[in-house]
Fold these 2 entries.
Entry 1:
Amino acid sequence: AVGQLSSAVDTGHLIATLWSTQESIFLAQYSLSSAGKHTVTVSTASTGGFFSFLWAGVCGENYNNVPGAPSVLLGSVPRAKPDDLNYEILQYNMRFLDMARKFQQQGMNVTTVDTFHVYDTSDLSDDVHPNRAGHTKLAAAFQAAF
């Protein structure tokens, strides 16, 4: 095992959900030390409820100045309708951008895409999901980053 993220040990960032509950967001970086395939195991000790995760694999080679080299586009978390949730999202995005900068300083070809400021709340189909116009604006932001 390379690493284990534990809500009992690691401090996450609490956010209030639309269902009047609290959820924790964690952001972690683990070095796998070699190129090639890796097995990543995600497990939870809790029963019931909802569990989701996002992850990205980034190579440790220095590709900053290599034409045609592998690259990763990392998008921040987009805005939501509840302002208190947007505060939490911005806090998460700051941690996210700090990690991306560390990848870049290590020579990784990582580009960040600020999706928080791409659209306003009129581009949402509910409190958190973009509608057609919102998706179009997100796609344009990623296309511009290419």
Entry 2:
Amino acid sequence: MNTMPEVEGEERIGLVPRKRPLTARHVVRYAGLIVLALVFVSPLVFMVLTSFKTRGDAAGFPPSWIPDPFTLEGYRAILTTAGTPVLRWFANSMVAAVSNAALVVGTAALAGYALARMTFRGRNVVFGAIIATLFVPPVILVIPNFLIVNELGWLNTLVAVIVPTAASAFGVFFLRQFFLGIPLELEEAARLDGANAFQIFWRVVLPLSRPALATLALLALLTNWNDFLWPVYVLFSPEVQTLPAGLSTLQSANAVRYDILMAGAVVASVPVLVLFVFLQRYIIEGVSRSGLKG
């Protein structure tokens, strides 16, 4: 007999969550989210299904969703044809993207921490100059970077698609904003314990910055993985091509083989989707905790 008043009292002080009634506004909101999700997911689903179609079925009009019959002909073609070493392109892209992401995170973390915590003359000027480079269209830098890479003898090597973009202005800005949100008292406590500046950075700041570091690493990896223009300029041999540049030759050689094109697109998309699934928690946390201080 006394349980109901107790529950009501607990609900009033917030100990027991109360279920809100489903209103028409909620129904409309959920319906809109479902439609929006379908708009974004439908092209991916169609791409995957088309990769399992026959050549005729993939080029048929009107297009069908379900493969009839279900076949691996597209994947077999891109994986066994001598002139299209897709697995080699995949490995080259993986090496280039991972190496570039590691360099971007390393340089951005060092520069971002220096701009966030160290005091030196011209710090704001340096930070402003770094931010100003974000307004420079990347295509303007293609020819100067090509001349530099040519002088260094890096043409037609993976180094040409790894090193030139290792210094990321966005990465410096992103990590600087995150470092500013870390309580300064933690670093002061480490300094009182005898830690020097690098030990504080390595043992205190970086472990607390894992979400931001994972977010920047994924963004850098995606940028390098999807880069098409720069590899086309600096990579010439099929053996050193990255996946986007190699798939462009696949498209020109098989202009109407939509099954092969979609199979190549699936191969290029799988690593990105897998990484996002495993790192989405860090990405959300890193983005939500960055950019709160100027």
